[in-house]
Amino acid sequence: MTKTKNIFNTVQELFSSNGILCHYLKNYITPEKIFLFFCLFWGIILAFINPLFQSFDEPEHFYKIYGFTNGTMNFKKITSYTDGTLLFKEPKTFSAQIIPVSIVQISVENKKLNAYFDENKTVYKPEKLKIKDAIRQYKMELNKNFRTIVVHVIPSYTIASYLPHTIMLTVLKYLDTKPAYMIFILRLCSLFLYITLVYNAIKITPVKKYLFLLLSITPLSVYLSSTINTDHLVIGLAFLFIAYTLKLKYDENIKNITPKNIIFFTLLILWLCICKFTYLPLILLFFILPHEKFKNKKYQSLCFVIPFIICTVWIALYLSYNLHIFKGVFTYFSKDTSIAIKSIFTAPLSYITSIVKTIIANQAEYTKRIFSDFGSSDTQISSGIIYSFITLIILNILFADKQKTTFNLKEKLIFVFIILSVLTMTLTANYIIFILSPEGLIEGFKGRYLIPVLPLFFMLFDNNKLKPIKINLPLFTVLYAFFFLIVFSVCLINRYYII
Description:
Layout: H1 2-15, H2 20-28, H3 31-49, H4 58-69, E1 76-82, E2 87-100, H5 101-109, E3 129-130, H6 131-139, E4 147-151, H7 163-174, H8 179-204, H9 209-216, H10 219-225, H11 231-250, H12 259-275, H13 297-325, H14 337-346, H15 348-371, H16 383-400, H17 409-433, H18 454-459, H19 473-496, E5 497-498
Parallel strand pairs: 3-5
Antiparallel strand pairs: 1-2, 2-4
């Protein structure tokens, strides 16, 4: 009994707010350094254990980047009775790209790892990858002059979403790098860009450092950062933008908000809107900034109006251009976008009903998939682990992540409005693009689209009424996230590989 009590006292000493580990963390290891080590360690592991082209639309993102390296700022078109998988009764015009056969071969081979439809709408049971097949794929040569045309469905992203990847892939093409190594290196580009953005977000924010840390090391955030996509950039930019706004609000060294501050504020939100325009509502964080930090009301108004106009003009031009270039191009499970846009104004009640019904029907699924949505959405983690992790983050806000100032009711209402606006805009974009389900629900929305606004959601729990507890919750939660990622990695290996 005495021995057990000694062990308990030792553990309590380690994790208590005045314990050894807490003292070491406060004095030597900052939250951004914890993030750097954690994300670098797990990001590299996930980049290499995840099979080639086995994350959300990874082949299509790769094809888009490859097109940029050829000097193609847009997509090519092909008219055919088939897209390579499905057969159609009438010829369709598809968006496409010219890609080396070896790259397409890897993508086609690894389709068997996921359930997919054939022309008879048959769902195939996902297979697993043999180690010898994985090794064979790693040995494939590029042979960039032996090419084919391949249909892909992500033609609308601009080069601003892939700039580091495009530069790197241009170099790799010149060196005749094998396709598998191209994929791994581009995944690492995503990882390093994500780390750079989030590291600086955690570093510059004067408050809620551990909240940013915990949200940036969730298994799905780290997983997305180690794949070829645009999610890592959107999440990183959103976190950095929120952190910079908090810096403008709370940093005691910033007595006055200067034009230089507003220029950086504008560049961040503009880059975010260029990557995904549905996050424009984040610009409303401007209204949490103190009035006394602006020299007068006219200057304050201009500091908001100018960035807002720049972003909205960009979005209007971008959407108009895409409606033009998509004209006549077939998109899967889609409808006529011009008719869908008109229906929002001619039948607003039907549109609003679809959004409300979708949120109510899928709220639990969206919550889970913010933290657990891997591969082709078929690799999941136990709900118990997910909800316990969410609970730990909330407990950190309530009892651990304290600050001298807190968010008032007005600021929290702004957070709520931003979250609901992002949700509505994203659902509206899907309402325009995708056919409604038989139940009248909007298809295509993923829980991961809410990760960029998660800091605002958890800051709603912020208060100064509850006293901090003795247990070092941030440290415990980081260790729990480490355990979470071990479980996820085992699930990923078990899902994809024959050992």
